[in-house]
Amino acid sequence: MTATAETRTSTAAPALRRLYFVRFGFAVVWAGLLALTASDLGVAAGVLLVLYPLFDVAAAVVDARSSRARELVLNIVVSSLAALGLAFAATSGIPAALRVWGAWAILAGVVQLVVALRRRRLGGQWAMILSGGISTVAGASFIAGAAQDDPSLTTLAGYAVLGGVFFLISAIRLGRIGRTA
What we know:
The chain is mainly α. 83% of the residues lie in helices and 0% in strands. The chain has one domain. Helix 1 (3-37) packs antiparallel against helix 6 (154-180) and helix 3 (72-89) packs antiparallel against helix 4. The two termini are 15 Å apart.
């Protein structure tokens, strides 16, 4: 590893750790709010659906600035398009929202997987690798679930909590790695 790469790695880990803790907290609070409003696709649930990918955009911007991971630009674009798509889909009903969310989960999961694989040397990334892989599978299940007789948004709350737990695990691992380095 070059001196520049070593410096970038040593400065990126604490920033990522803080970001991962924030992402965990946001995911848990968001999931709780969605669980309370997910019985129908009203204004509150619609706003929450759009808010999640917008938060992902903000987190990707912070991450890209601290780590210089160019792949995150793709995540910013995909999540921005997802927010727009969800704004429109929310007016069409739960099945449309699940399809857009599913497509976003697949694409964002692939990007997360690629970024985590490239960050392996940083440490604490196995949870992000798992999260990216699971996100792609979950996205396909959301799309399939949209065709069920009574589709529900509550599965999205579970998805967010699981993703948040993976961010928490990575944050803890990054802290441990930083203390032992």
